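Input for the complex:
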Amino acid sequence: MKDKVYKIIELTGTSTSSIENAVNSALKRAGKTIQNLSWFEVVETRGSIEKNQVQHWQVTIKVGFAVK
Amino acid sequence: MKDKVYKIIELTGTSTSSIENAVNSALKRAGKTIQNLSWFEVVETRGSIEKNQVQHWQVTIKVGFAVK
Amino acid sequence: MKDKVYKIIELTGTSTSSIENAVNSALKRAGKTIQNLSWFEVVETRGSIEKNQVQHWQVTIKVGFAVK
Amino acid sequence: MKDKVYKIIELTGTSTSSIENAVNSALKRAGKTIQNLSWFEVVETRGSIEKNQVQHWQVTIKVGFAVK
Amino acid sequence: MKDKVYKIIELTGTSTSSIENAVNSALKRAGKTIQNLSWFEVVETRGSIEKNQVQHWQVTIKVGFAVK
Amino acid sequence: MKDKVYKIIELTGTSTSSIENAVNSALKRAGKTIQNLSWFEVVETRGSIEKNQVQHWQVTIKVGFAVK
Amino acid sequence: MKDKVYKIIELTGTSTSSIENAVNSALKRAGKTIQNLSWFEVVETRGSIEKNQVQHWQVTIKVGFAVK
Amino acid sequence: MKDKVYKIIELTGTSTSSIENAVNSALKRAGKTIQNLSWFEVVETRGSIEKNQVQHWQVTIKVGFAVK
Amino acid sequence: MKDKVYKIIELTGTSTSSIENAVNSALKRAGKTIQNLSWFEVVETRGSIEKNQVQHWQVTIKVGFAVK
Amino acid sequence: MKDKVYKIIELTGTSTSSIENAVNSALKRAGKTIQNLSWFEVVETRGSIEKNQVQHWQVTIKVGFAVK
Amino acid sequence: MKDKVYKIIELTGTSTSSIENAVNSALKRAGKTIQNLSWFEVVETRGSIEKNQVQHWQVTIKVGFAVK
Amino acid sequence: MKDKVYKIIELTGTSTSSIENAVNSALKRAGKTIQNLSWFEVVETRGSIEKNQVQHWQVTIKVGFAVK
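Predicted:
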């Protein structure tokens, strides 16, 4: 078996409700063009504010997937 | 139009239920004395423990707002 | 009163549902063998992906407790 | 002579032309309410993009000044 | 409205004259193949030296843009 | 009981004798205008030199206190 | 001569034998679709364990190449 | 001679008087259950505040010792 | 199936010949008392010098394993 | 051909006008005693303030050059 | 007046008694060959252990001085 | 016995074959002008690429030695 190689891309997902949804939003979008997404790591959690509460959670992740 | 200047302050919000609520708790309190809060960034997520579960989520954020 | 000393250990909790549950999962397990867990800090948030959404949240924390 | 104490605040200056102007913009604004600004350190250099070039340089600095 | 997703890529722009030009050089090139570049962040500033002065400024940036 | 919110400020204390005194110098000054200072963290230890020994210890700390 | 622009991508190469082979494995794969790979930097060295020894070295690198 | 292996643990020592005493307090306690402590590294210096001065120095160290 | 919990410990392996051997040396020793070691991450690579060449490679790793 | 070895030194250049001039100021001075300066990397950008504007830009760089 | 240039060197001072003495020990030695040492910054605090207490404090500092 | 003082210098060694050889290459060269090199720490591992494989490993190390 050959040694596998993975590519890592960086995405920012957004959500009005939670950090978890922001991550899943990014993964769902990435899955439209990339097969076999394998793992992710959160690298930054930011957000915009409206009327003194979080308007959009903006979660930046690195996502890894095997290169065929 | 003049170049805008923003100030950034650091706050720790707490919540017994979630990271998201801890952030909103800090923003709500900051909004009492500061207008036009604009964005935030999570810089640390800690917590106190009671009976082997999280008692208080303590989330430290940097919050930016335009200086008039 | 003597000066207290604390030990800090590193754990990764996992959960299919949320970051908060992953942390509590790690604390619950640690509490089986360690008394008086006192505080924690999140040091890494990663996860595995299945069908373009988060399968397991993997949250690594440092946990501190007083050494008797 | 007593030991001096300094306070450090964090500001983001913006400029359409250069990093240097963004820093000076922040210092000029801070000088309206704070006397004797003493030193600064650049902590982040970001910007917004319009038509594939930098629209606003956004330079975040820490600024120190002696507390009377 | 759906939650937006952004992709972040990393580029090194170069310039014989200034840091600002090196950034704009990278943005101009990226704009040839990517629409709606939105924001950037400087992550590294290096350079080559010739005859004891800067020959090329090499500025590495992360650039974000909305994924359609 | 409501969730508490804390503010964190950054100060540099100085002392000719020790790191500990530099920290206490900053805390003493902060206590003149802020009640209930709660915790601190050392973020930088620098100093000026005179005749090949430390002239002033300059210790930068973050100080947290509950916002009423 | 125009100022060059480089793109930087992130890859994880794997190898059962050494860190060096894991890096070369990633470069070999990248070279199938990208011409003129120019430099790399190791950003993380991890691995999986089987029977108390390293099973796969997993070396994450950033790779730079000139954009034509 | 076989290649030595060391284990590294993390401890927080506390002291009302100094950073040095906080470190020694942690080492003294560790020495009750671990033989041949070899080296340490300071990773964090924090403290609690009472009446505008340091109440307890809380110094977190990593401590290494040879595994027999 | 219950959510798994992992513990992470820190070890320094040494070797006169290579970084890879230093890591395997640490894993072999850890395997004597811990079952099911799962993954590791290199956190520091140092060494001692004798006659202007590396005498011992000292590689510090974090090692994770499932807690039963 | 033998494997080259490079030495890296750290310098702070200053300028009243720009970051670029501060870097070139340091390189010019270094070139008086060191031949074949090859590359540099900016590691810190600070400055002194006079009348609410930057008085001196203080840019710290690492500079590499081949050891003959 | 010309723009000043500073050189920064890295030293580890040691002391059996305190962090402060370890720093002064390094400065005293550096002053034998370098004139006008100007400032320093602590970058690492480590030590060796003997009989469960600190044997030598090993404090690494960066020291800056004007190049004539 | 007097408290020892160490100096730390930064070098980049190169090798066409391995990380280990790149480090030893730097140490061998340093040993020509400096006696009693004592320890090193790897701070960066980079390299140049030729025909989709590593051409030169470029390993930057900090090297410490006692100042007489």
